[in-house]
Design goal:
The chain has about 500 residues and is of the alpha/beta class. It is built from 19 helices and twelve strands. It folds into two domains: about 230 residues, Alpha/Beta hydrolase fold, catalytic domain (Rossmann fold); about 210 residues, no CATH class. It starts with a helix and ends with a strand. About 5% of the residues have low confidence.
């Protein structure tokens, strides 16, 4: 079996993380109310490429207000799915799951991966409930670009690692182009897809399902969603586990610099691991230098792909970054790099890159995550359009993150030129005041959500408890450590918190 075949067979979901920006004030929480309808579970549509034919998964649609401040106004439909507990006799209840983004289709992830997404005891004892948050997937999705435009936006070169003045102007022009495309295609929807509105949808789902309390496991961006829910509806909170936390009160440093430092550290450790292993198929002990040669050559002497594309430097970077999210994927990174460098075979790297952005083999996209990610983030966190601001942030972080500092800093320009503002901004203080204890899981080597962000969230929550995983990869719950999984299971089932300061390996 080839590395590509093994990768496609073992591929699990990649949990993406939002960039962050400045917070804003929020209106008072909207009280719990009667939902517009009850949740009625039915067999999932046969025509759905993800849920069709599933023997266990059931689906529902719940109408909710487009604007919760106008509950009698227009509505949108939220698509929901449930995988019943495997052990119905020992069933504890329903567990809501959000897999990150923002913009990930929870239904696609659950349908594709099933109970393997969570520790076995959680899948046995809980009905796993997920949904496509507003603006994503099947729930009033944002649409900004055509597939061809999205290919170019993702894979064509962005701002250089060492940008000149003209490069910053070009980056701002690119951001303006994308923002205008979103306004033209989804402008009427953009003000209504923020995280506060999604948290209100969670409350609508809880009530419509007849649940006294909401139990929840949120990964990556899902930690922000969970923390906002706990802040808006503290008396509705059951047991919340927030894994791989987003900084709840971001600064310029955490918004546009710290994630790049974490990515750089993970990339450097990947190359060091390869160099230390004489059997590593890439680089002959100098993986970083070989990587630089490969990416430089990708534009001058392109490697043809079976689908008619060529392997670009952007694809190589995206494919390798994808593997940083899961320590088990490091072997695929070096196998793909070795195949490209030694055999001019770019198929594995292209598959890794396409998996990261949810691009399918037919040239389309299995979800709108790459558009919803940006749209939700910019609605949540309005930013400055000042080039000078982001250039200064780049200067601050270029030494710690030479490969990522420019791109991370320039990412703020999109939210600076964003064409819409949220009708339901984030709470001014995201602290879960009045909610019961909340378990926060942080991974010391997390490339996407720096460990310090989990420390900050746990400290900010009124009753936050930090559980640490000492290791690599994005998020900790779900098979990396029995210590982490056992603690998550104990908390979700019985509310038992791990001892303060617990660190697992």
């Amino acid at each position: 079996m080839t590395p590509l075949q093994r990768f496609l067979g073992l591929l699990a979901t990649v949990l993406l993380v939002a960039g962050c920006s400045t917070g804003s004030a929020s209106p008072s929480p909207i009280a719990s109310r009667s939902p517009l309808a009850d949740v009625v579970w039915e067999t999932c549509p046969e025509s759905d490429p993800f849920t069709g034919g599933s023997p266990e998964l059931v689906c529902a649609t719940l109408p909710v207000p487009l604007d919760y401040a106008n509950p009698s106004g227009p509505t949108i439909d939220i698509a929901i799915a449930m995988l019943p507990a495997a052990d119905q006799e020992g069933r504890v209840g329903s567990l809501f799951l959000n897999f990150g983004g923002p913009g990930a289709s929870g239904i696609n992830v659950l349908a594709s991966n099933g109970r393997g997404l969570v520790p076995a005891e959680i899948g046995n004892r809980f009905d796993l409930v997920t949904w496509d948050p507003r603006g994503t997937g099947r729930s009033a999705p944002v649409n900004c670009l055509t597939n061809r435009e999205l290919d170019a936006w993702i894979y064509e070169p962005g701002i250089p690692d060492v940008p000149r003045a003209a490069d910053w102007v070009a980056a701002k022009n690119d951001a303006t182009w994308f923002a205008r495309k979103c306004a033209a295609r989804s402008g009427d929807l953009l003000p209504y897809i923020g995280t506060s509105a999604s948290a209100r949808d969670m409350e609508s789902m809880r009530i419509a399902m007849g649940l006294t309390k909401l139990d929840y496991l949120g990964f990556s961006y899902g930690t922000l969603l969970g923390a906002v829910y706990a802040t808006l509806y503290p008396t509705s909170v059951g047991h919340l586990v927030l894994d791989g936390a987003v900084d709840p009160v971001p600064t310029d440093a955490s918004k546009y610099g710290e994630q790049g430092v974490s990515l750089q550290g993970a990339l450097d450790r990947l190359f060091a691991w390869c160099d230390a292993d004489a059997q590593c198929p890439f680089g002959s002990g100098a993986a970083r230098a070989a990587f630089d040669r490969l990416t430089a050559a990708a534009e001058k002497n392109p490697i043809a792909l079976a689908d008619g594309r060529t392997l670009s430097a952007g694809m190589i970077w995206t494919g390798v970054i994808m593997t940083l999210y899961n320590r088990d994927y490091w072997d695929y990174a070096v196998a793909g790099l070795g195949s490209a460098a030694n055999d001019r075979d770019g198929e594995l790297l292209a598959a890794l890159a396409d998996a990261y952005v949810d691009r399918n083999q037919g040239g389309g996209y299995a979800s709108n995550i790459m558009e919803a990610f940006l749209a939700i983030n910019c609605i949540d966190y309005p930013a400055s359009a000042s080039i000078d601001k982001y250039r200064a942030i780049y200067e601050q972080f270029k030494g710690e993150a030479p490969d990522f500092a420019a791109g991370q800093a320039a990412s703020g320009l999109l939210c600076g030129v964003w064409p819409a503002s949220s009708v339901d901004p984030l709470p001014a203080s995201i602290d879960g005041a009045g909610a019961p204890p909340i378990l926060v899981v942080g991974t010391t080597g997390d490339p996407a959500t720096p460990y310090a962000w989990s420390e900050r969230l746990a400290a900010r929550l009124e009753q936050g408890r930090l559980l640490s995983y000492v290791g690599e990869g994005h998020t900790g719950v779900g098979g990396k450590s029995s210590c982490i999984d056992d603690a998550a299971v104990a908390f979700l089932i019985s509310g038992t918190l791990p001892p303060d300061g617990t660190r697992c390996q």
